């Protein structure tokens, strides 16, 4: 298995249960780890075989 890791994505969202959450927004942080087989795109070097 190969790993694709993306860390520290930040976005401000304006939704929530309370009025102040929708008014002021809040920061959402995302860390992502994908474990997948990249052997085919590694061999073909074709964009159609990559993760989308």
Radius of gyration, CA atoms, in whole angstroms: 18 Å
Side-by-side strand order of the widest sheet = 1-2
What are the segments in which pLDDT stays under 50 over at least 5 consecutive residues? none
| Percentage of residues in strands | 35-45%
Oligomer: single chain
User: CA-to-CA gap between the ends?
Assistant: 17 Å
Helix vs. strand class: alpha+beta
Explain what you see.
It contains two helices and two strands; from the N terminus they run E-H-E-H. The mean pLDDT is 94. It has a domain at 2-37. It has 52 residues and is of the alpha+beta class. The protein has a two-stranded antiparallel ribbon. The chain has helices at residues 19-24, 39-44; strands at 2-13, 26-36.
Describe this structure in a few short sentences:
The protein is 23% helix and 44% strand. The chain has two helices and two strands.
Descriptors:
52 residues, two-stranded antiparallel sheet, 2 helices
Draw up the topology in text.
Elements: E1 2-13, H1 19-24, E2 26-36, H2 39-44
Antiparallel strand pairs: 1-2
